[in-house]
Design brief:
Number of domains: 2
Shape: globular
Oligomer: single chain
Low-confidence stretches: none
Helix content: 25-40%
Mean pLDDT: 97
Number of strands: 14
Order of helices and strands: EHEHEEEHHHHHHHEHEEHHEEHEEHEHEH
Bound molecules: flavin-adenine dinucleotide
Radius of gyration: 21 Å
Number of helices: 16
């Protein structure tokens, strides 16, 4: 009988690594998490990137999926200092005419900003799904399985499988609702004429109408990682930082090893243990477009032209469906858009811990070709000026992170891909390979628990949760 130092080791302390660690320690196992960086959290971290006293989120900022995650929402994370702030509106999508569609928890108030027949069309589409989110979430945020609520899931899937463009054009008559839906679907980082892109738009629209909606942690995204880590450690888990794993054989003996990493790193670290067929399938895994990220220290709030933008934690800039679709297609094809879809977050408007009194932070990124080296700073700031004239005068300092900077800071962000692989239909529920148990690597004791597994990118911990479920079942004969 082999002598193991740990029951399980998790490589990487992103939200999914921490989630897996929590599930395994909760089951009574001894678990070590090793992290390459000096700070834990992967895509859920905060730092003073610009000036003293300004707390920025270099990566994730807005956390509807953490709030709505069946796994994370059930954890006692408030006990470890996690408090979500919900701004009066989840999202604003401004237009050149100085108006905006504003998504609030109340669908009635939201559709007043959509206008015309589309307000009612929006209500009919989204309200029934939002009301059933608690039943829908475990079906959507999971690997392929026979749904417990086949009728409800089928109703969602028939819509979700469509392209965002096809969905928006067939359900909405006017440009406002079509544009707002395009912005939601553009989080997919895939072209909006691809099948499955509507699903991203639907999930984000639904979560905007739930209590807490598109909230974010008081004090910064790091608070999520810190609360998960504190909970994990309270259960007996250990975390070792500053430890980059280069070869899986160098780890202490453990019955299970879970990679909170993407396929390319797994090939580097554990390739010698993998069967040739699986290796070649991992080599074919497709990474997506990159992100170009900016953070600003601001002397005052962003001076939005449209009413309602000052109520929202997130603002989507890109104008019409055609413009957004064009910019997303360009990023996918390897071209630069001069008017990209820009996602802006303005947490300091609602969280006074983010900046010195009277000052503010700004967070934004746009999608660019995988591995792009083009500086998008001016292009992003031009898009903000378009909807908020005078924005540049508010800037005290900025931090710039190119796709390759993102990868240098976290090796999972390959070529600036922030979702652990492209979210195309063939890689949503079948990532990293087609398998009924996508978390199991066909080598003794090896598993993958990162966003390169279902249900994919975002801070929700569901990949880690399902991977831990597989480990407990396959290695320890336990039912979850
Ligand atoms: C710019 C940006 C904006 C985003 N915005 C949002 C948002 O607003 N909302 C949202 O929900 N999601 C957002 N995301 C996505 C979200 O952050 C990720 O989907 C999520 O963090 C994935 O979690 P993970 O645990 O799978 O991996 P990660 O969070 O990437 O964590 C992986 C960890 O593994 C470590 N690691 C890598 N290689 C090694 C190694 N060899 N040895 C040891 N450790 C290693 C890394 O340092 C990292 O800590 C954003 C991401 C980025 C980059």
């Amino acid at each position: 009988m082999k002598n193991y130092k740990y029951d399980a080791i998790v490589i990487g302390s992103g939200p999914n690594g921490l989630a897996a660690g929590i599930c395994l320690t909760r089951a009574g196992l001894s678990v070590l998490i090793v992290e390459a960086n000096a700070t834990i959290g992967g895509g859920a971290r905060s730092a003073e990137l610009t000036l003293p006293g300004f707390v920025h989120d270099p990566y994730s900022a807005i956390h509807p999926l953490a709030i709505c995650s069946p796994f994370m929402s059930a954890l006692p994370l408030e006990k470890y200092g996690l408090e979500f702030i919900q701004p009066p509106a989840s999202l604003a999508h401004p237009f050149d005419d100085g108006t905006a569609v504003v998504l609030k928890e109340s669908i009635r108030e939201t559709i007043e900003t959509v206008g015309g027949a589309d307000g009612e069309n929006y209500r009919k589409l989204i309200a029934p799904l939002a009301e059933r989110w608690d039943a829908l979430a475990p079906e959507i945020l999971a690997p392929l399985h026979f749904p417990r609520n086949p009728f409800l899931f089928g109703k969602f899937a028939l819509k979700a499988l469509r392209s965002a463009r096809g969905f928006a054009e067939s359900h909405f008559e006017g440009s406002r609702a079509r544009a707002a839906f395009a912005g939601l679907a553009a989080h997919s980082m895939i072209p909006l004429d691809r099948a499955g892109s509507a699903g991203y738009g639907l999930v984000l629209a639904i979560t905007a109408h739930r209590a807490a909606g598109w909230g974010f942690p008081r004090g910064g995204a790091q608070k999520i990682a810190d609360a998960l880590a504190a909970h994990f450690q309270s259960l007996g888990g250990e975390i070792q930082i500053n430890t980059r794993v280069e070869n899986v054989d160098e780890l202490p003996p453990a019955k299970a090893i879970l990679f909170d990493l993407t396929p390319r790193q797994i090939l580097q670290i554990a390739g010698h243990q993998l069967p040739a067929g699986y290796k070649s399938r991992l080599e074919k895994f497709r990474y997506g477009a990159g992100a170009f990220k900016l953070d600003w220290a601001l002397r005052e709030p962003i001076p939005w032209r449209a009413t309602g933008c000052d109520l929202a934690g997130t603002v989507h800039l890109g104008g019409t469906l055609d413009e957004i679709a064009d910019s997303e297609s360009k990023a996918w094809r390897g071209e630069i858009s001069k008017t990209p879809f820009v996602l802006v977050a303005q947490q300091s408007l609602f969280d006074d811990t983010r900046a010195p009194a009277g000052k503010h932070t700004g967070w934004a990124y746009c999608h660019v070709p995988h591995g792009s080296t083009v500086d998008m700073t001016q292009i992003i700031e031009n898009q903000i000026e378009r909807f908020a004239p005078g924005f540049r005068n508010c800037i005290l300092e900025r931090s710039v992170l190119s796709p390759l900077d993102l990868q240098r800071r976290n090796q999972n962000n390959i070529g600036g891909d922030i979702n652990g692989g492209a979210g195309i239909l063939s890689q949503i529920y079948t990532r990293p390979v087609v398998s009924l148990n996508p978390y199991k690597i066909p080598a003794k004791g090896l598993y993958i628990c990162s966003s390169s597994t279902p249900p994919g990118g975002g801070v929700h911990g569901m990949c880690g949760f399902h991977a831990a479920e597989a480990v407990l079942r396959d290695e320890f004969g336990r039912k979850f």
